[in-house]
Amino acid sequence: MKVAQPSKHMIFTGPPGTGKTTIARVVANILAGLGVIAEPKLVETSRKDFVAEYEGQSAVKTAKTIDQALGGVLFIDEAYALVQERDGRTDPFGQEAMDTLLARMENDRDRLVVIIAGYSSDIDRLLETNEGLRSRFATRIEFDTYSPEELLEIAKVIANANDSTLSAEAADEFLRAAKMLHERTLRGRPALDIAGNGRYARQLVEAAEQYRDMRLAQGIDIESLDVDRLQEINGADMAEAIASVHAHLNMRE
């Protein structure tokens, strides 16, 4: 007698930049190693990969997207955007995509793992749009906003991977900026979430590296510098990076 397989679909909740996509890749590798899926494949998707502009097309588009993920993991970022409300009415094209996804999650459960991701409150609203949706997911993992100190450690790892180092002054500048965003609330969320958490750390480091390189290129005898000074991001480099990155963040109320 063939025994039905338990659901392996998952929910990842949390703000952007907290490692959801990275962990999804790890999950794909683990499941492939265990023989749960055929290969360590992660297909990253969003609303545009499922929802079409005309009636009947969303089902076809969704089916094609799912077919690409068969044998692996289908990762849907900002999954709550699949079904949107417009003037108090449910988006029919998004609902068509969701109905198709639900059917395939059940019918292809032996060769497909679906992970939906997004803010916790938004995912909860999505789950309420369909009675059968919540029961499809056996596992839910919450990803928390990083603390400023954790972001600094992430920044150091990113810098080290690029053969760069943060001076004590640069680290202080970074921590000051991260704390400011951590303590500020915008549109009901921590500003650090809107900035992107880990992505924010990467943006600051990469911008600071550019300012460091420009500083070193301006009239300094590079041959007279040692490796440590060539790799070091100083406080001024980081301060300029913070000003540049913050100028492009959507920080309006």
Quick synopsis:
The protein is an alpha/beta fold and 253 residues long. It has helices at 20-34, 57-69, 92-107, 120-127, 148-161, 168-183, 191-195, 198-217, 227-231, 235-247; strands spanning 9-13, 42-45, 73-76, 85-86, 89-90, 113-118, 137-142, 165-166, 185-186, 189-190, 232-233. It folds into two domains: 9-142, 3-Layer(aba) Sandwich (Rossmann fold); 148-247, Helicase, Ruva Protein, domain 3.
Structure description:
With 253 residues, the chain is of the alpha/beta class. It has two domains: 9-142, Rossmann fold; 148-247, Helicase, Ruva Protein, domain 3, CATH 1.10.8. Helix content is 49%, strand content 15%. It is built from ten helices and eleven strands. The chain has helices at 20-34, 57-69, 92-107, 120-127, 148-161, 168-183, 191-195, 198-217, 227-231, 235-247, and strands at residues 9-13, 42-45, 73-76, 85-86, 89-90, 113-118, 137-142, 165-166, 185-186, 189-190, 232-233. The protein has a five-stranded parallel sheet with strand order 2-3-6-1-7, with helices on both faces. Strands 4-5 form a two-stranded antiparallel ribbon. Helix 8 packs across helix 10. The N and C termini lie far apart (59 Å). The relative contact order is 0.13.
Features:
Helicase, Ruva Protein, domain 3, alpha/beta, 10 helices, Rossmann fold, 5-stranded parallel beta sheet, 253 residues
Topology:
Blueprint: E1 9-13, H1 20-34, E2 42-45, H2 57-69, E3 73-76, E4 85-86, E5 89-90, H3 92-107, E6 113-118, H4 120-127, E7 137-142, H5 148-161, E8 165-166, H6 168-183, E9 185-186, E10 189-190, H7 191-195, H8 198-217, H9 227-231, E11 232-233, H10 235-247
Parallel strand pairs: 1-6, 1-7, 2-3, 3-6, 8-11
Antiparallel strand pairs: 4-5, 9-10
Helix pairs in contact: 2-3, 5-6, 5-8, 6-10, 8-10
